[in-house]
Specification:
The structure is a single chain. With 136 residues, this protein is of the alpha+beta class. It has a single domain, classed as Arc Repressor Mutant, subunit A. Helices cover 38% and strands 10% of the residues. The protein has four helices and three strands. Helix 1 packs across helix 3. About 9% of the residues have low confidence. It comes from Paraburkholderia tropica. This is Winged helix-turn-helix transcriptional regulator.
């Protein structure tokens, strides 16, 4: 999941989405994903972070790609007036805190658990045999 630390990196997906919204005006999640060449799920996560941090807001809904209003209508996102943090080019970011590392590890564990939930296999390890005693 993107964090606010991503906003200070010039090449991060989160920063690219903000820049695209500033240049192009209101866009849907799919349009943004196509524009900056990321997956829709990546754009979704970045937009969620940006909305939570108040860099982006919902401005309405639009017709779907085919121009009809059947089904779920995609949301339009627009930039707010909140300024982005300054870019840190050439500067090494500080190491993540213990809480950030914990959150990252928890996300990895949850992802692996959800992927393997249907296909849980246990592998039994062979018993370790004791080496034969020297009989002299």
């Amino acid at each position: 999941m993107p964090t606010e630390r991503d906003l200070v990196r010039e090449d991060s997906s989160t920063r690219l989405i903000c820049d695209a919204l500033e240049r192009l005006g209101p866009r849907t999640q799919a349009q943004l994903a196509r524009q900056i060449e990321v997956t829709i799920s990546c754009a979704c996560k970045c937009l969620k972070l940006l909305r939570d941090e108040r860099y982006v807001r919902l401005v309405g809904q639009t017709n779907n790609i085919k121009g009809v209003s059947n089904g779920k209508l995609p949301f339009l996102y627009a930039r707010t007036i909140k300024p982005l943090p300054d870019l840190r080019t050439g500067e090494v970011l500080p190491a993540p805190t213990a809480n950030e590392l914990r959150d990252i590890m928890n996300q990895i564990i949850r992802r692996q658990a959800s992927i393997g939930a249907g296909n849980v296999r246990t592998v039994s390890s062979p018993a370790i045999e004791a080496s034969p005693k020297d009989e002299s």
